[in-house]
Write a structure and sequence with these properties.
It is built from eight helices and ten strands. Helices cover about 35% and strands about 30% of the residues. The strands form two sheets. A six-stranded mixed beta sheet has the order 6-7-8-3-9-10, with helices on both faces. The longest helix has 18 residues, at about 175-190. By secondary structure, it is of the alpha/beta class. The protein binds adenosine-5'-diphosphate (2 copies). One adenosine-5'-diphosphate binds next to strand 1, strand 2 and helix 1. GO terms for molecular function: ATP binding. It comes from Paenibacillus artemisiicola.
């Protein structure tokens, strides 16, 4: 579902340059929950953001669902991105919009008819357990509830892939577990492929099938979670 081949990214700021990720190859199957773990500055976020081309890699190719995204013209890329949802550490909700309108946002952009948007948002509210919060604003919600809105918005266009950027790092342990079990539930129910980055071992152990350990922009270990982390 996700194929990264020889991905590198060099950031240039003035005369300085940082090679954030170096020649990464990674192949993630349909329906997998794949985790990338590493210290701060290891290159996790850069790698994740190349998958939907929020970050343009300096070298290499990105394929999602068999379609090569690198090199697509802007309009076509925008359409392909609807197959890739994303959630964030700090939720990135629109403060001035209700829960319903936050979730509806990508559907409005895609110019769906109003009635279809309403029905789809109702479905999503139910999926994430926020039926009673539809008319509230983000400031009225707990962290866990905000992330539920983020998840519903990410799933609105029925994507094949969900990218999770430190999605539980701003949450307390109990809420983290609730969000992780929601992600697992969604993975089982919808067959969606999940790629997450985290600095927390617990997140990897609790829901990932496979894991890559990234350090200095390179994958230093990769395998089934049980083999990578539970070795004697
Ligand atoms: P992680 O997500 O593992 O913390 P990042 O991908 O954010 O790692 O960063 C990897 C490296 O790239 C770090 O050295 C970081 O300082 C650098 N970096 C990240 N984003 C930028 C940017 N926009 N401009 C310059 N350097 C960056
Ligand atoms: P909080 O930050 O308030 O702890 P949570 O993420 O734990 O937020 O969830 C908010 C509420 O939704 C909780 O009361 C929880 O019991 C409920 N809830 C959790 N998962 C589901 C679900 N899949 N469907 C419906 N309700 C749920």
């Amino acid at each position: 579902m996700i194929e990264l081949a020889d991905i590198s990214k060099t950031y240039r700021t003035g005369s300085a340059s940082v090679e954030a990720i170096k020649h990464i190859d990674l192949s993630i199957g349909k329906g997998e929950i794949f985790g990338i773990i590493g210290h701060s500055g290891a290159g996790k976020s850069t790698l994740l953001r190349t998958v939907n081309l929020l970050e343009q890699p300096t070298t290499g190719t990105v394929k999602v669902g068999g379609v090569e995204l690198t090199g697509l013209p802007a309009g076509r890329l925008q359409r392909e991105r609807r197959r890739i949802g994303m959630i964030f550490q700090h939720f990135n909700l629109l403060a001035m919009a209700t829960v319903r309108d936050n979730i509806a946002f990508p559907l409005k952009l895609a110019k769906l008819p109003k009635a279809a948007i309403r029905a789809r948002v109702d479905e999503l509210l139910q999926l994430v357990g926020l039926e009673r919060h539809a008319e509230m604003y983000p400031a009225q919600l707990s962290g866990g509830q905000k992330q539920r809105v983020g998840i519903a918005r990410a799933l609105a266009s029925n994507p094949d892939v969900l990218l999770c950027d430190e999605a539980t790092s701003a949450l307390d342990p109990q809420t983290t577990n609730a969000i992780l079990s929601l992600l697992l539930d969604i993975n089982k129910k919808l067959g969606i492929t999940i790629l997450l980055i985290t600095h927390e071992m617990h997140v990897i152990r609790s829901i990932c099938d496979r894991v890559a350990v990234i350090d200095g922009g390179e994958i230093v270990e990769l395998g089934d979670v049980v083999d990578v982390f539970l070795k004697p």
